[in-house]
Amino acid sequence: MTEKQPIIEKPPKKLTVYLLGLLNPARIIRAIKFHRKQKKYCKVSHDMELRLYAEMLSNDMLHYGYFEDVDTEPEKLSFNDVENAQIRYAEKLISHMHDKFLPVLDIGCGIGGIANLIHKHGYQVEVLTPNIGQITYVRKNYPDLPSHNLKFEDFRTEKKYGTLLNAESFQYIDMKKAFEKAGEIIAPEGRWIIADYFSIQQFPDKKYQKKFEEFEKMVGEHGWKIIYQEDITFHVLPTLKFANMYVTRIVNPLLLYLEDKLLVKLAWLHHLTREIRDKLSKKLTKEFSKLDTAAFISEKKYMILVLTKQQQT
Ligand SMILES: C[S@@+](CC[C@H](N)C(=O)[O-])C[C@H]1O[C@@H](n2cnc3c(N)ncnc32)[C@H](O)[C@@H]1O
After folding, report:
1. How far, in Å, from the CA of 265 to the mean position of ligand 1?
2. Which atom of ligand 1 is nearest to the CA of 131?
3. 119, 92 in Cβ contact below 8 A?
4. Sign of the torsion formed by the C-alpha atoms of 151, 224, 217 and 303
């Protein structure tokens, strides 16, 4: 009589386990629900970009900064230099404020770094942003700053402000509505300080970009006048070059490395995810193209503008 051999069950292969897991109907339904929820949450994609920059820099400012030396080489820059440039930019904007008795409204305040500096200069400052993540952060870290969580276009108040500030936030707001709202809440002799980039050509696919010519036209139409303007395009470029250097020398090589690793370790997953990886790669190429300094100079100019209301006669 031959001895009965015990049946040894072979563990299912990794690939089979993964595929069975992916094809599980309950899991697919959960994934679809999760996708819908996330889509709603992340409806403004630039919020994600801002969060990324906020994680990288530590002074709670989300703008390009201002470099005195326009020839600063990106290789010679540190994160600390970029943060110092951001503080210099904020100080430049604050130097245009003049009335400490009336409140300042920081429109599109990001995560509160500029407003905190304005407060330290002795101004009463309120912050406004439609982004729930940003307002939560500001309320926790700068509890002394009164805050408003909504779009500027939807802001309602009886109060009059001595200064309205748009630091790299004007581009996100409907221009006509911004002029109407600013006109309602500015105090007589009050100043509206706008620092942002404007397009110098029209690009139908870039809806956020405001054309400078149209802006200038609207200034007069809405009863404002520009009392100061400075083109700081070349002074913001070192930050762009710095970010570009990181993408070229670290982010892109790292992505290629991860892709190779996936191919070697899990070739089947590499094969199955080809389409999604191609899509992601196109998206990243588009995002990273925003860091192209030559394109920036040819398409845009970065302006500091100070406006006041024209006196009624
Ligand atoms: C590039 S960040 C600038 C943040 C901040 N001013 C700074 O320089 O650190 C743009 C800001 O504009 C805000 N924003 C976007 N749409 C807005 C709107 N309709 N009204 C007011 N703020 C808006 C964003 O939530 C974000 O806080």
Report:
1. 42
2. 25
3. no
4. negative
Amino acid found at 126: E
Indicate the burial class of 110 (C-beta count within 10 angstroms; 0-12, 13-18, 19 or more). buried
Q: How far apart are the first and last CA of the chain?
A: 117
Q: 194: closest CA among 208, 223, 215, 213?
A: 215
Crossing angle (nearest 10°) for helices 274-289 and 252-265: 170
DSSP class of residue 251 equals: I
Distance CA 300, CA 278 (A): 29
pLDDT in tens, 137-194: 899 999 999 999 999 999 999 999 999 999 999 999 999 999 999 999 999 999 999 9
Question: What residues are paired with 225 via a beta bridge?
Answer: 308
pLDDT reported for residue 42: 46
Ligand 1 atom nearest to 106, measured from its CA: 6
Q: Which helix (H) or strand (E) holds 231?
A: strand 224-231
